[in-house]
Amino acid sequence: MVEAYRFPGIPVGWFTVAISGELRAGQVLPLKYFGEELILYRTESGEARLTDAYCPHLGAHLGAGKVEGENLRCAFHGFEFGGDGRCVRTGYGKAVPRKAKLGTWPIREHNGYIFAWYHPERKQPEWEIPVLPGPAEGWTAFRTRSIKVKSHPQETSENSVDTGHFVQVHGFGDAWTEGDLEVEGHLLKGAYGIRYPIAGKLNLVMKFNVEVHGLGYSLVRVEMPRFNASVHALVMSSPVDKENIVLRTSVSMKHWGPRPVTHLIRELASLGLNKEVGQDAPIWETKRYVERPILAEGDGPIAEYRRYCRQFYVQEAVKVAKLPVVAA
Ligand code: FES
Ligand SMILES: [Fe+2]
To answer: CATH assignment of 135-311?
Structure first.
């Protein structure tokens, strides 16, 4: 593929790397994200940690390692690494080499997900993603479905501002934007309405408040005014490498009527969202990235969205900064 049709690397931000329930205490899970081999493990006390996969001693893959209390133990020579990645003991019971440090990745765990912070220069997090209400606050837990797609987080997030495709691809009766996009640093906010035809004549009107918290985490607050119902939908795109993602869609609903009814609506909403992603996926997989699109009246605020996205590419900024300074 021609370089010009690619996105400029993996964007900085928070990305889901696992569902909390996939990682039991004491479990070691090898993962691949950000083009890196990684290890996700949970200590005996329940803390999740994400590290590089290769042992700094002689390079064994720590996927074969074991959790020992609050440490991760390499299977090759028994070196153990603590939460900050430092080696705390060797299998020889002798002095610990001070330089032996395993690379660690910042993570957060809430709403049933483990999120990792990606920065190509391994810098610390620059913002946080919201903690949403859960079962303790009268909302259900999130129902998640996931697919692997040959695509990029900027592409999948762009979908939420591409109102033009709602009618063509997803069969909405009508879709409109409400007000302008708002950009506050890493956060982009937009509001939309859609009319969704059900059973011929009946129209379900839904209001979407979209919050894009970086390119890996989009939150859609959905309101159905006619039924006084509220849903939180998450679209979370995690780069496996520069050209492939795992896309997770998740739905949580504010309790509405009897519990089984709420759970049934949540399931239907989750299936609906999953179906929409299934309609988008073949387009994402076969399209190319047009850096300067020819936009038309009726398009959503794509140009504004593209401007917002630029802040997440460090490599580009670094490349510019490294250009030789020519003396006048
Ligand atoms: S390679 Fe891990 S302890 Fe030697
Ligand atoms: Fe879509």
So the answer is: 3.90.380.10
Question: What residue spans in the chain does CATH classification 2.102.10.10 cover?
Answer: 12-118
Residue 108: count of CB within 10 angstroms of its CB:
16
Fold of domain 12-118: Rieske Iron-sulfur Protein (2.102.10)
Domain with CATH 3.90.380.10 in the chain: 135-311
How far is Cα 171 from Cα 38, in angstroms, rounded to an integer? 40
Residue whose Cα lies nearest atom 1 of ligand 1: it is 58
Q: Report whether 55 contacts 47 (CB < 8 A).
A: no
Distance CA 193, CA 175 (A): 6
Determine if ligand 1 sits within 6 Å of the CB of residue 79.
Answer: yes
pLDDT digits (tens, 9 = 90+) for 185-237: 999 999 999 888 777 777 888 999 999 999 999 999 999 888 899 999 999 99
Residues 6+ apart with CB under 8 A from 221: 208, 209, 211, 230, 231, 232
Give the list of residues 6+ apart from residue 295 with CB closer than 8 angstroms, or none: 302, 303
Taking only the tens place, the pLDDT of each residue in 100-134 is 999 999 999 999 999 999 999 999 999 999 999 99
Is 87 a pocket residue for ligand 1 (Cβ < 6 Å)?
Answer: no
- Kindly state if the Cβ of 92 falls inside 6 Å of ligand 1: no
Residue identifier of the C-alpha nearest atom 3 of ligand 1: 77
Residues around ion ligand 2, judged by CB within 5 A, are: 159, 280
Is the distance from the beta carbon of residue 289 to the nearest atom of ligand 1 less than 6 Å?
no
Q: pLDDT band for position 316 (50/70/90)? A: low
The number of the ligand nearest the C-alpha atom of 91 reads 1
Find out whether the beta carbon of 102 lies less than 6 Å from any atom of ligand 1: no
Residue-wise pLDDT for 40-81, tens only, equals 999 999 999 999 999 999 999 999 999 999 999 999 999 999
